[in-house]
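Example 3.2
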Amino acid sequence: MSVAPEMDNLDTVKANGGTGIRFRDPQVIGAGERGNAYDVSGSPSPSKDHHPRGALHRKLLERKVTWILATALTVLLCVAIAQPAACHHVDRCRQEHARIQDLRSYSGYITAALASVMLHELASVILTHRTARKAIHLIPNIRESLLPSVLLCITFFVLILENLALVIGETPWFAHAANLGHPELDGQPVYTVFYAEWLINVPILLILAGSIALQRPTPEVAEPLVVTNVYIVFAWVAHFVSNPGIRYFLVALSFLMYFRASWSMCRWVWNWHLENSDDHHILGRPLLTFVLILVFGIYGAVYVSRLHGGVSYRDDRIFFTTMNFTTKLFASMTLAGIRSSEFQEVLLSMLANTQTSFKRSLKYEDTTPMLED
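Structure, written as tokens:
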């Protein structure tokens, strides 16, 4: 049975002396009805534009420099106001950090596991790139399917650096001393290295969940991304505010911003569902978004418990070390599933839109030599 090609999605090309076809807007990973969803640099989609470009805030959100500047200015302002003391300059903080040196081996195991996963993703990038070069004349945007693996390699590399700091850092230069106006909690180490890692990796996770998995446009993804980075900084600096009123204001503001960002992420799923009504399985593309919302909420609960002494700084470090690793590993597994299913869709689409009839012939006279009498 022959299948008529969808001419709206095909171009006729000449290559190697012959005539063939190629997809004008291929459905590689992350490419949906609106075209290439991997473009997080602010370039408009070549097929459709659902958002007006006249709004100034949208134009600003389209630029990655806006994300960086918003985060950097928030950090500088909070540090200038709170002036947190480095842990290695405070005797009690230095002593408390020395009491949990047995956790260095745990971070070492995490580092080894991260290195293995990163090498796996890196090998996937290299091998896929070598294979993609052979099909560029058929699927010109196929290289963009490498972006998820590249971003995951970056997240794993940042996590490796974080855990290496915890492994080799006898001097706690990567931590600050808490200043909560409470004699039992003041001077305990606050591991700033975790918050620094989140400021880099959380935006990448949001890009993976929004821009790649759900094919959302850049301004739609950028809003919760910037909001999340700002409330991460507010949550960190609250550890160094002795005034209860100001501290709880920062904590409350952080949670309000979390709920705002979570609502925006739920809107990703809703908008994606409206554009892809035939694909609404929760274990598909929306899964990573919902998991991130849940994980960030759990992080917040542990954070508040630590702030009030319900969770010790030792347990706090174990929890964040473990969850940082498992969350990124889950993102890698989820995107691997999406990649696998969409590569199959690409192959099926290419076969369905060709004029060639594929036949399978069977030779019933073939026998297996080892089974002959």
